[in-house]
Write a structure and sequence with these properties.
The protein is mainly alpha-helical. It contains 3 helices and no strands. The longest helix is centred in the middle third of the chain and has 13 residues. It starts with 12 loop residues before the first helix and ends with a helix.
């Protein structure tokens, strides 16, 4: 997993198993998938942009 991923708050074996399964089945996104997500995010207006266009 990337270093930026931190798993906290494991207070039961069920939660631990869930976290371990997430780590075991983790797959990186491909370049095309990342580009699609970034393109979609770029089209989303921030709350400030929405309020500026609402007037």
């Amino acid at each position: 997993m990337p270093v930026s991923t931190v798993i906290t708050g494991i207070d039961s074996e069920k939660i631990l198993d869930q976290a371990l399964e997430a780590e075991r089945t983790f797959k990186r996104l491909g370049v095309e998938q990342v580009e699609a997500i970034l393109a979609k995010a770029a089209r989303v207006k921030t709350p400030r942009q929405r309020s500026e266009t609402a007037h």
